Amino acid sequence: MWRNTHDGYGLTARILHWLIALLFACQLPLGFLTQAAARDPALQFQLYQWHKSLGFLILMLALLRLFWWIVSIRPSPLPRTRRLERLAASAVHRLLLVLTVLIPLAGWAVVSASPLAIPSYVFNLVVVPNLPLAASDAAEAFWSRIHAVLAYGAGLLVIGHALAALQHHFLRHDDTLRRMIRSPHNRDTAN
Ligand code: HEM
Ligand code: HEM
């Protein structure tokens, strides 16, 4: 039930996939809004704290998922998928796995390198310490650029990834999307 089988994704991979997808979909516009709200410092501060809280949550879930992905078997490709398609899908999945770790790390670097030294209150519960980086305007601008490029780049990849899933479901009528939603019906032999 919890683990992947050769037929499909287990509950762990599916829960992590949709939870991270949902958080990621909120996090991109939230990151954009932190920039748009520059004229209202109080609102901007709140948006930043929410953005950092969700970001750290994504980082923890993404690390958990990466670990799970490494120790899990991968469901076999569905019949009638071409070799090039499989390679492209696998490359995009790997990139997304890595990006969901790298983007929050780059965001953490922005905050850590900022001379403003604003603490990160995660969900108003804990203060996450900064990374050991030298603070300067140039370092903050550097990490900020990296963070933005990776985040918007991942956004574009996700759009392609989601469109590919919808194409499989509605045009090719195969199980690609279904097996990321439902458990593999007959066997859960890996449990
Ligand atoms: C998957 C997680 C994350 C995503 C998708 C994301 C996305 C974004 C986006 C799209 C922006 C706007 C960039 C721009 O238009 O210039 C942004 C800004 C920002 N994010 Fe994140 N972020 C994530 C995690 C984090 C984390 C964990 C932190 C800090 C601990 C953080 C800190 C910041 C800061 C300080 C800014 C404003 C500075 C700047 O980059 O211009 N982010 N983020
Ligand atoms: C509406 C949005 C999304 C849809 C419809 C969707 C759909 C899917 C489907 C159907 C699969 C299985 C593909 C296969 O078996 O070949 C999959 C796998 C995957 N997706 Fe998504 N996805 C979405 C959003 C995202 C987001 C936002 C991320 C990451 C930021 C993501 C990362 C992944 C990864 C890494 C895999 C590989 C399997 C795993 O380890 O979970 N997806 N997705």
UniProtKB/TrEMBL annotation:
Topological relation to the membrane, as annotated: Multi-pass membrane protein
Transmembrane segments: 54-74, 95-122, 142-166
Record's keyword annotation contains Oxidoreductase: no
Pfam families, sorted: Ni_hydr_CYTB
Domain Cytochrome b561 bacterial/Ni-hydrogenase, residue spans: 9-182
Keywords per UniProt: Cell membrane, Electron transport, Heme, Iron, Membrane, Metal-binding, Transmembrane, Transmembrane helix, Transport
InterPro entries cross-referenced by the UniProt entry: Cyt_b561_bac/Ni-Hgenase (IPR011577), Cytochrome_b561_oxidase (IPR052168), Di-haem_cyt_TM (IPR016174)
Localization: Cell membrane
Top-rank taxon: Bacteria
Keyword Cell membrane: yes
Gene3D superfamilies referenced in this protein's UniProt entry, alphabetically: Transmembrane di-heme cytochromes, Chain C
The protein's required cofactors: heme b
Residues forming coiled coils: none
Membership in a protein family: Belongs to the cytochrome b561 family.
Protein name: Cytochrome b561
